[in-house]
Design brief:
733 residues, alpha/beta, Immunoglobulin-like, 17% helix, globular
């Protein structure tokens, strides 16, 4: 039994295991606070750093960097600035030295995970001294930042040990993502279903061969070329490819029984192999070869490939797998052993979700063990134990003792002590290292060609564990992308955004709703910007493997046109362009889309291709610059028409989408003066619809000046239901 320290791991020190026994310090005593981040690209007015998050994007291959200032205020109780030493303490750019734990006294060394940077006194704010230093984000990763000061040679005092507005202050997260995140357009596919033939049994399911030229069964409505060239998407998201569990808990019988066929792929049996079902050869070896071939062919087409992974839960019969043997956690002979039997302490206890299972009988029956009856994944018989932390627990009103935290607890505190001097929890460290090796392993298996993951129930891991996993993976491939399924209330989603590159929307229902209004869409978008920061990318979709669809393929195309006109990443599920209205079951029975593939969908496919092409060719649609357009007469939105101005430099697009499956009347929209048009009277503009049958055709009888456009607005006429207009304003003289 491992000794567990009951002392709190200070948020300020990011999991470093340092415990400062300071008294509560009021403003009459020395104080540090008002941490802020300021830059010339995003946060010109500064972003509060007390539990703040900033997102930056760069291309390491082009040696891009993002400079930013860190500011903090100090009240030194009468001591002169010359008597103070003030520093930033951060692991920014240090992903290659990522560690589970590091002593604070080791910071600043060549191999350290954390570094210190001196701050310079630059003035006063009221009674406080203002300090600043300039850093630069140069390497993609998930980082944390705080400040500290000392008077003379006295003890260090940390920003996170002081209060603001009665609350202890916390660290700032700096998420540095690959720039290509901003360009993603995603197509999600279930590899068992996407090209399955009719019949309804496991004999008709599709395989990885169906994605490539290895498909030789004479039936080929779908393949990589369809995703990349017919529809124009640049990223393929595959639902889980791992072998799934063969058993599940039957709550009525109170025992484990044979799993459904095919069963959920989100309850893995082996994270380190490809399911034998996914190859016509019927072996894990042939499936691995086909997966490697698929990823290679996708790269030839400039198509990213993401795999879908659930890290907080697995099947009860999950084995250690090859990764555990590679890390020396088990011998090669033990790699096929079930974790539950050989190492139950890797699992959560059924009697106390804040501790290891003591033996196999004590393993929680299903995941997530801390959410009572809110989520019940009966095939997920392993809830991995990543340690005890403040946001581990139920949501309000769901019961359980929440004195040590609950799902919405935003302190980000680890209670498991990873400091060797306090009783190191080796099993927690083993779990962190086990999963931090997973994606480098799959990069090795794909010649470094795999491009990213979608993390199922991403909130199910402590933030520090995700940061470690992300930074260890980026040692192998700097532009590997992490997409999070982020569910539940705003605080939970905000917490996940503090380390992930891309977040899913919770408002997907709006993007399949036939009666959605412009006001509903704007409220959702503004709320997301308020939660994550206006430049944090959000994935927007109308349906997925978990959701119902809408049987009107044209209406769903128009919803995709809305998502593609916004910052972030638009996404479709494989059923959406086909007009599938029901949820496509992936767990309880074998499914196929054969009937839908037989229908005439070519014109719908062509519209997806046009939208994706325009998005790819126009940086304005990928920028953060946007202004939602109101009616010229009387103001307010036309609730039946999505309307937005998007621009980057002098590239200006006005996007209008008929949200109805019927024709709506013409409307004139006001164009605000902050849209960057040249006001020189000698300059004229003409407009083209870039997604029209003839995108070269001009739409105005005569070119117009910017002043005329601002004064008279833009008249929009739709000739068909769910019509899409991506209007580009172009100088003609």
């Amino acid at each position: 039994m491992k000794f567990k320290c009951i002392r709190l791991l200070k948020t300020a020190l990011f999991g470093l295991g340092i415990f400062l026994l300071l008294p509560t310090i009021g403003r009459a005593e020395p104080w540090m606070g008002e941490l802020a981040i300021r830059d010339d690209l995003v946060w010109r007015e500064a972003r509060p750093g007390n539990y703040g998050t900033v997102h930056y994007f760069l291309d390491e291959d082009r040696n891009e960097q993002v400079p930013f200032d860190v500011l903090v205020q100090v009240d030194a109780d009468g001591h002169a600035p010359s008597e103070l030493q003030v520093e930033v303490f951060t692991n920014l750019n240090r992903r290659d030295h990522a560690k589970v734990w590091e002593n604070v006294n080791d910071a600043g060394r060549p191999s350290s995970y954390y570094m210190t940077y001196p701050m310079t006194h630059v003035g006063r704010v009221g009674n406080n001294e203002l300090y600043k230093t300039t850093l630069a984000a140069t390497r993609a990763g998930a980082y944390r930042l705080t400040g500290r000061f000392r008077i003379g040679n006295g003890p260090w005092r940390w920003h996170n040990d002081f209060k603001t507005d009665g609350q202890m202050q916390r660290d700032c997260a700096v998420v540095v993502s690959p720039r290509k995140v901003l360009n993603l357009t995603l197509y999600e596919a279930n590899p068992y279903v996407v090209e399955a033939t009719s019949g309804g049994t496991g004999q008709q399911h599709s395989t990885l061969e169906d994605f490539t030229d290895h498909d030789r069964d004479g039936y080929d409505p779908f393949n990589l070329h369809y995703v990349r060239n017919t529809l124009g998407f640049n990223t393929l998201w595959l639902m889980p490819i791992f072998p799934n569990t063969k058993e599940r808990l039957d709550p009525d019988q109170g025992r484990r029984v044979e799993n459904y066929s095919p069963g959920s792929p989100y309850a893995a049996r082996d994270y380190w192999s490809v399911s034998e079902r996914l190859s016509e050869g019927g072996t894990s070896e042939s499936a691995l070869r086909e997966f490697g071939y698929l990823v290679g062919k996708a790269e030839d087409l400039d198509l990213n490939v993401f795999i879908d992974v659930a890290l907080n839960h697995a099947g009860r019969d999950v084995i250690f797998g090859q990764g555990a043997a590679d890390l020396g956690l088990v011998s090669q002979n033990e790699a096929r052993q079930p974790v539950a039997r050989a190492r139950p302490s890797w699992s959560t206890s059924k009697s106390n979700y804040r501790s290891h299972a003591s033996d196999e009988r004590d393993i929680a029956e299903y995941a997530p063990a801390d959410r009572l009856g809110e989520h019940q994944w009966y095939d997920a018989g392993i809830d991995w134990y990543f340690g005890d932390y403040s946001s581990l627990g139920p949501k309000p009103g769901q019961g359980h003792d929440t004195s040590r935290g609950r799902a919405e607890d935003e302190r980000d505190l680890l209670y498991t002590d990873l400091d060797p001097t306090g009783g190191h929890d080796f099993e927690v460290e083993n779990i962190w290292n086990y999963f931090a090796y997973l994606f480098p392993y799959w990069l090795d298996k794909t010649d470094n060609k795999l491009d990213g993951i979608r993390a199922d129930f991403a909130q199910g891991l402590p933030p520090q564990a995700w940061e470690y996993i992300i930074n260890k993976t980026r040692q192998k491939k700097w532009d590997f992308i992490f997409l999070a399924e982020a569910l539940d209330p705003d605080p939970i989603r905000y917490r996940v955004a503090r380390h992930f590159d891309l977040l899913t929307t919770v408002d997907h229902w709006l993007y399949r709703n036939s009666a959605v209004t412009m006001s509903q869409l704007v409220r959702s978008l503004e709320q997301e910007a308020n939660i994550y920061g206006y430049n944090a990318p959000v994935l927007r979709n109308g349906t997925s493997h978990d959701e119902e669809g809408n049987p009107d393929a044209w209406l769903m195309m128009s919803r995709y046109a809305v998502a593609a006109a916004l910052p972030g990443a638009p996404m479709v599920y494989m059923s959406q362009p086909l007009g599938v209205g029901n949820k496509v079951d992936f767990q309880y029975s074998w499914q196929n889309l054969a009937d839908y593939w037989s229908r005439s969908n070519a014109k719908v496919f062509e519209m997806y291709h046009r939208i994706n092409t325009v998005r790819d060719q126009n940086a304005a649609l990928r920028s953060t610059n946007r202004f939602f357009l109101t009616k010229q007469r009387g103001g307010g939105f036309n609730e039946a028409i999505f309307s937005v101005a998007r621009w980057q430099d002098d590239n200006v697009l006005l996007v209008f989408v008929n949200l109805r499956d019927q024709q709506v009347g013409p409307e004139t929209f006001a164009v605000p003066g902050n849209v960057p048009l040249d006001a020189n009277p000698a300059v004229r503009y003409q407009v083209r619809n870039l997604v029209a049958d003839d995108p070269a055709a001009v739409l105005w009888p005569e070119p117009r000046t910017a002043n005329d456009i601002f004064r008279s607005g833009v008249h929009v006429h739709f000739s068909s239901p769910n019509e899409v207009q991506y209007l580009r304003l172009e100088r003609v003289r």
